[in-house]
Design a protein that fits this description.
- The complex is a heterodimer.
- Chain A is built from 3 helices and no strands.
- By secondary structure, chain A is an all-alpha fold.
- In chain A, 0% of the residues are buried.
- Chain B is globular, with a radius of gyration of 20 Å.
- By secondary structure, chain B is mostly helical.
- Classes of the chains: A mainly alpha, B mainly alpha.
């Protein structure tokens, strides 16, 4: 029983120190360069959504024209 | 742009997941390292694909119960949108696999299942294009769609659970159980899934509207020439 408790305690203690050794893009984050990437992604995303929005409006306009044509015929 | 609040919600959620997915803290895990963030972008593609295929199935069943071509055009456009999301999922997965596993295609049960699913749905598309009569096309492809969806379920949900895989979160479960525990990842992941599904519905409805406008124009022309 004591062995198991010790094992759990040891894993709990060593896990955080092990986790710190995993290589991550920490320097990129600390220099703030990551926000450049975020800005680029957001510009592309907003551009694509704007395109979808105008496409939606255009289709609405065409639908109105078709409805008028159908009433006339 | 009437009744468009859900479109705005979708855009906000995906935008949030793009910012949060890159800036927020993630668990420090060996091998995956920063690529763990791909979870926010790659996995929602699959959720979205399954959702689109499910809506397509619902409209196919609706068509078979009540043959109106409107249901058929909804079924096909939702299936097409699902295929687009599936292709995006496969390509993003291959980019990730190339860096993490060493080659883009590993014959992983999940990869194979996804590829088979996409082929089944591409066959749906080919079946439709090979039938000139619109009513026959709608009926036959409606029946095929039911088979396609029932083929997808074992390919994506059952077989990967039965076999071992190198895919993250595997080892009995193809989900993301290993990351699932992390509260902060969930705060980005679930909004991303909902947002992408809403965007997918938006794109699909645009396609449905173009298709029905096209059909109406053909009808008007036909009436004129009679």
């Amino acid at each position: 029983m004591k062995k198991i408790v010790n094992l759990i305690l040891l894993t709990c203690l060593t896990f955080p120190t092990m986790a710190q050794q995993v290589e991550m893009a920490d320097s990129m984050r600390s220099e703030g360069k990551i926000y450049v990437v975020v800005a680029i992604i957001m510009v592309i995303f907003i551009g694509l959504i704007a395109m979808l929005y105008y496409l939606d409006k255009k289709i609405s306009r065409i639908e109105k024209i078709i409805d008028k044509l159908m009433k006339n015929s | 742009m009437k009744k468009s609040w859900w479109k705005i919600v979708g855009v906000m959620l995906v935008g949030y997941s793009m910012v949060g997915g890159i800036i927020f803290e993630v668990p420090r895990l060996a091998i995956v390292n920063e690529t763990i963030r791909a979870l926010y972008f790659h996995v929602p593609m699959w959720f979205c694909m399954v959702f689109m295929f499910f809506i397509s199935l619902v409209y196919s069943i609706k068509y078979l119960r009540n043959p109106t071509l409107n249901f058929d055009s909804k079924a096909v456009e939702f299936a097409n949108t699902g295929i687009i999301f599936g292709l995006l999922g496969i390509v993003t997965g291959m980019i990730w696999a190339n860096y993490t596993w060493g080659s883009p295609w590993h014959g992983d049960p999940k990869q194979n299942g996804a590829a088979i699913t996409l082929l089944v749905y591409l066959a749906y598309s080919i079946l439709r294009q090979s039938l000139p009569n619109p009513d026959q096309r709608a009926r036959l492809s409606g029946v095929y769609n039911i088979f396609a969806f029932t083929t997808m379920i074992p390919m994506i949900f059952i077989i990967p659970r039965l076999s071992s895989s190198m895919h993250p979160g595997s080892g009995g479960n193809p989900g993301f159980n290993m990351y699932d525990l992390d509260y902060q990842m969930r705060m980005v992941f679930y909004p991303a899934v909902i947002g992408w599904i809403l965007l997918g519905i938006w794109v699909a409805t645009l396609r449905v509207r173009i298709k029905s406008a096209d059909m109406k124009i053909i009808n008007i022309e036909y009436e004129k020439n009679r």
